[in-house]
Amino acid sequence: MILHSVGIDVGTSTTQLIFSRLTVENRANAYSVPDFEISGREILYRSPVSFTPLLSPTQLDASGIREIVAREYQNAGMEPGDIATGAIIITGETARKENAGAVLESLKAFAGQFVVATAGPDLESVLAAKGSGAVAYSRQTGKTVLHMDIGGGTSNLALIQGGEITETGCLNVGGRLIRTEQGRVIYVSPVLSGLCGLRPGDPVSPASLAPVTELLVAALERAAGLSSRPIPEELVTNRLPQLPPEPPVISFSGGVADLIEDVSSDSFAYGDIGVLLGRAIRKSALCKGPYLLGRETIRATVIGAGCHATQLSGSTVFAREVSFPLQNLPVISLTPEDLASDRLSERMEVQRARWEEGPVAVFLANQGGLNFDGLQRLAQILAPPLERLPEPRVVVTRADMGKALGHALATRLSGPLLCLDGLELPTETFLDVAAPVGEGAAYPVVKKTLVLG
Fold first, then answer.
1. What stretches of 30-79 adopt beta strand conformation (E)?
2. Which residues contact 94 (CB under 8 A, 6 or more apart)?
3. pLDDT for res 395
4. What is the tens place of the pLDDT at every residue in 359-369?
5. Burial class (CB within 10 angstroms; exposed 0-12, middle 13-18, buried 19+) of 187
6. pLDDT, averaged across the chain
7. By three-state DSSP, how is residue 420 classified?
8. Most exposed: 88, 222, 257, 442, by fewest CB within 10 Å?
9. What's the predicted TM-score (pTM) here?
10. Percent of the chain with pLDDT over 70
């Protein structure tokens, strides 16, 4: 089975699209429950890189983005109806809730059944590490890699060990934290407040910006374990990866990565500090040891979104009266201890209350396969607190039991109900679910962490 996927990356600096062909195979034999898996990914079309249209330094021009998307659909020879899955990823300094809403509204015609994410630092780190080839490099060589995706507003970090992403982090380090025009400053990001004496209207030169680029590079060096200089708290978005004793290979992607080895560019060729930041990185401790530029640099995140964001649920699923897509469902994770507690409803409410009103996804962590009686007991325990949640009720398990549990719950609950299996949902996760594929046997899903930031 073939699915066409789109990835749309709306970043602080640039907007770009990628169209992919995903090959889905049923790995089960003819006598088993279908087991669909994405077995192949082929890029069909890469759009040119466009500057992200803005109404102000922090507000996206949603209609301008729609024009870019419509043009690239046409250039790719694609219609919205051709696309089965994919993701719109809003990243960096533009990843704000009001921006997400405006972009969603403007792209309704293009985003029918696939998912949309305001990418928090964890999701963006994962997508960039996969899209750049850093994960594949670690898997093939066995080396530990610290991947740095350095964009316009942020640097997303991913520690990769044995081909698996084990830690993520993020710094407010990027090429468009200061913007220039005709030799003068026109914008200074709020994250540099107190760290930089420059103001709009001030003249700029490589020398006057050297203290800023040195400060930003020092933060990257500290994150890589190459410096003991403390990082100003304004530059730390969430956390830094905990590094192993052995120094990792440093890998770079993002727009600034293209400038690390570029010695020919005008210092202010892009109206920001990206060129100067790239030069400073090249001279820093980050490039004294082994390092590599990603197989994809500026396109790493969009390739991650178009090719690697989507997974498939297990095939033993249950759905009743559910309208797709489901987007940004906060995950409530329940342990076996929670399920055994007489305060289960209270524990679920405490978790649910952390998010805005609306549907959630209940994940049964470490819940093994159950026999018929065990499933009935589990459904009996879950039904009362689920009944208090907004519709649709969504339950997710790692174990192969979605359909059976769904039937057991359906006799105890009315209204829309979805039970998925074959998924692992870490804490602080949001879930998007698209319309089913494979004649209803599996559902494309995207797991997101720390979104809507």
1. 36-46, 50-51, 54-56, 59-60
2. 10, 11, 12, 52, 58, 60, 153
3. 92
4. 888 998 877 66
5. middle
6. 81
7. strand
8. 222
9. 0.66
10. 80
Q: Which residues pair with 17 in a beta bridge?
A: 8
Read off the tokens for 236: 């730390």
Report helix, strand or coil for 278.
Answer: helix
Count how many Cα atoms sit within 13 Å of the Cα of residue 402 in the half-sphere of its side chain: 26
Q: Please list the residues that pair with 417 across neighbouring strands.
A: 320, 393
Contact (CB, 8 A) for 356 and 327: no
Closest alpha carbon to 433 in 308, 312, 316: 312
Do 117 and 88 touch, CB atoms closer than 8 A?
A: yes
Cβ atoms of residues 65 and 106 within 8 Å: yes
Separation CA 279–CA 277 (nearest Å): 5
For the segment 220-242, what is each residue's pLDDT rounded down to a tens digit?
Answer: 999 999 988 899 989 988 778 88
Spatial distance between the Cα atoms of 295 and 314, rounded to a whole number of angstroms = 31
The whole-angstrom distance between residue 187's C-alpha and the CA centroid of its chain comes to 27
Place of tokens 């969430």: 238
Residue labelled with tokens 């509204």? 105
Chain mean position to CA 372: 38
CA angle 44, 84, 443 (to 5 degrees): 125
Per-residue H/E/C for 202-251: CECCHHHHHHHHHHHHHHHHHHCCCCCCCCCHHHECCCCCCCCCCCCEEE
Which residues are CB-neighbours of 209 under 8 A, at least 6 positions away?
Answer: 178, 198, 273, 276
CA-closest candidate to residue 423, choices 308, 313, 318, 316:
313
User: What is the per-residue burial (b if ≥16 Cβ within 10 Å, else e) of 429-451?
Assistant: bbbbbbbbbeeebbbbbbbbbbb
Distance from chain centroid for Cα 120 = 6
Alpha carbon distance 409, 386 (integer Å): 9
What's the rounded Cα separation, in Å, for the pair 375 and 280?
Answer: 59
